[in-house]
Amino acid sequence: MDPQACGLDGCIKCTICTQVCPVAQRSPFYPGPKAGGPDAERFRRTGHRDDESWTDLCSGCKLCELACPSGVRVAGMNLDAKSVWVRKNGLSPVTRLLVNAERFNRLSAPFAGLQNPVLAHPLLRKALEAGIGLNAQRPLPRNQRDRFRRWARERQKRRKPVNGLNAEQIAYFFGCYTDSHAPSIGKTVVKCLEALGCAVEFPRQGCCGIARIASGDWKGAEKIARRNTRWMNEVFARGIPVLFSSPSCGLALKHEYEALFHSAGTGYLPQAHFCDVFEFLLDFRDQAIRPGALEPVPARVYYHAACHLKALGIGFPAVEILRRIPALEVILLDTGCCGLAGTFGFKQDRYPLSMKMGSDLLETLRRVSPDFVVSECEGCRMQIEHGSSLAAVHPIEILARALSISVSSPPSSASKAPQTGS
Question: Is the N or the C terminus of the chain less surrounded, counting Cβ atoms within 10 Å?
Answer without folding.
Answer: C
